[in-house]
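Hi V.,

You were right to ask for the full record rather than a summary. Here it is.
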Amino acid sequence: MRHLILIPAVLAGGFGLSACSEKGDETVERAFQDVNVVDESNLNDVMLTVGDPNEAVRHFQKSLKSDPDRADLQRGLAMSLTRAKRNTEAISAWTKLTGMEGAKPEDSVGLADALIRSSEWKRAEQVLDAIPPTHETFRRYRLEAMVADANKEWKKADSFYETSVGLTTKPAGVMNNWGYSKLTRGDFEGAERMFGDAIRQDPSLFTAKNNLVLARGAQRNYSLPVIPMSQSERAQLLHTLALSAVKQGDVTTGKTLLREAISTHPQHFEEAARSLQALEAG
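Predicted structure:
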């Protein structure tokens, strides 16, 4: 009887050890899965930031073959295509993403961005209009302002630009866009002020410096503004100012500015030299 009692006990112990082994294997397997998820997430983040955009496109395309229904991978593909300036493909990728489970309002903003990059203004406006008004982000309002600009709805554009400036800690880029909007509509003084604000926010933003010179040139003010600039930048801005003077009909002033640009540049300024040669020959 004693042996009969012991046998079930031993068997039970064996099953217990087997169950523990199986549970241990499951735990290890889950641990490896968790590690793989973390590793994949890190790799995806790297691809979206420092990686070559076309390499990132290939990475996400390959990943989507295994998991075609994952919105995060589709988002990575759409973002990578946008970074690679493959706008037509980006539009398709963003469009597909916005119809997937797990899509976010910011994905529609991404679609609108891609559409604007392809000059599909009307469709971009429709996409932005469909985004819930509660989704208030700097990027959304910046795009809204650009669409309003394209429609020449200046008051609406100003309102959107003002809102977007208030939603970011780095407003220089949007200030530059706002200034260019004012330049386009002929508000040269307003444009000059806005470009100046952009430069104060980011003294390295050369586009704003060049636009500032254009705004001054449009008012026949051919002196360089007092802003931070390197010797090379000074030469380039003088060249821009010279072309602006020529456009206004002030050819003599334009020639003088071109000569100054050539002498200021630390290297041979081929573009300015050609411009001056063309003016003197004409």
